[in-house]
Amino acid sequence: MSMEKFLNQAVSSWMSEEGPYSDIVLSTRIRLARNLRDFLFPTLFTSKDAKQIVDGVKYFLEEQLIDNKKPEFLLMDELQSLQKRVLMEKHLISPNLVERSRHGAVILSDNEDISIMINEEDHFRIQCLYPGLQLTEALQKAEEMDNWLESKFDFAFHEKRGYLTSCPTNVGTGLRASVMIHLPGLTLANKMNKIIPAINQLGLVVRGIYGEGSEALGNIFQISNQMTLGKSEEDIVDDLLGVVKQLIAQEQAARDALVKTSNIQLEDRVFRSYGVLENCRIIESKEAATCLSDVRLGIDLGYIRNVSKNILNELMILTQPGFLQQYSGGPLSPNERDVRRATLIRARLNLENQTSEEE
């Protein structure tokens, strides 16, 4: 498979498009947790219950459209392990849905900016992904999808406690708002160790690229709300938006300071990383993530020209194990993955260079 064809098939809209503050904010996600009133929650329900829910969703979808296009409905039991891993690496399904899989399913919009997981920790997990900082827009779309489902299904709702969920931390609005943010300036300035505890004190949480328990590879952090009860959806989003905008300002200031005080050292770091990516024959995921972060910073600062800003978004996903094996056409050992990762990165940069020359 050619790199261009692979990219066209693999890259979702939130990876390939730019949004507000996209030099620092890679993506925005809104997720709503919902459960059905007349069924036990997924932590306790039977296989019969799970199948009945899936069958009900399939029937509902027969004549339904999302954004005037037919959505795709995928049953986890019918997917291969590699296919499920790729969906997870694209952030379209969660690791939890991959592990549970028993009568699990996902509804995907045509451009994959909407993903609705079925029979995960809750009966429904409505997720909207947008490029850049678009919390309000993503919330509006998620609420539209929420109303769309509620036109057919009766959700478990308590007058005082709000939407009822399997995990008590999601009770209330059932809302998780998160932003994927690239903070190389603050990391290089050794300020993240102080910033993360300060963010936690504001009722927000800082995680890695794949959420809870994952590492912040390539200086990419996920900032999200912890509180779902006692605040409206709009208040939760506004609080997160305020903190993220402060982080953006601090990151911009950190980058300006690095350029002012350590410009030649920073430029050297950027081009060394670019050289590694352009010429490596074997590379581990952590090194690749670090180099990609440096190159993206170099693009944002104008050191590197004629390379797409979206290269970090794309390659942070495309160099994960599932995508590497999909690109290669089958299972790979860890060492083979490191070799393939290097090959894919070189091919992607070569495609970028060819595009620049044609322009």
UniProtKB/TrEMBL annotation:
Instruction: Describe the reaction catalysed, as an equation.
Output: L-arginyl-[protein] + ATP = N(omega)-phospho-L-arginyl-[protein] + ADP + H(+)
* Activity regulation (UniProt): Appears to be allosterically activated by the binding of pArg-containing polypeptides to the pArg-binding pocket localized in the C-terminal domain of McsB.
EC category: transferase
Pfam families noted in UniProt:
ATP-gua_Ptrans
What molecular function does GO assign, one term? protein arginine kinase activity
Question: Which positions does UniProt annotate for ATP binding?
Answer: 27-31, 91, 125, 176-180, 207-212
Coiled-coil intervals, chain numbering: none
Renumbered ranges of motif RDXXRA motif of the pArg binding pocket involved in allosteric regulation: 337-342
What EC number(s) does its UniProt record assign? 2.7.14.1
Which keywords label this protein?
Allosteric enzyme, ATP-binding, Kinase, Nucleotide-binding, Transferase
Q: Where in this chain does the record put each Phosphagen kinase C-terminal domain?
A: 24-254
Q: Which NCBIfam families match?
A: PRK01059.1-4, PRK01059.1-5
Belongs to which family? Belongs to the ATP:guanido phosphotransferase family.
Function comment = Catalyzes the specific phosphorylation of arginine residues in a large number of proteins. Is part of the bacterial stress response system. Protein arginine phosphorylation has a physiologically important role and is involved in the regulation of many critical cellular processes, such as protein homeostasis, motility, competence, and stringent and stress responses, by regulating gene expression and protein activity.
Its name, as the record gives it, is Protein-arginine kinase
The major lineage groups are: Bacteria, Bacillati, Bacillota, Bacilli, Bacillales
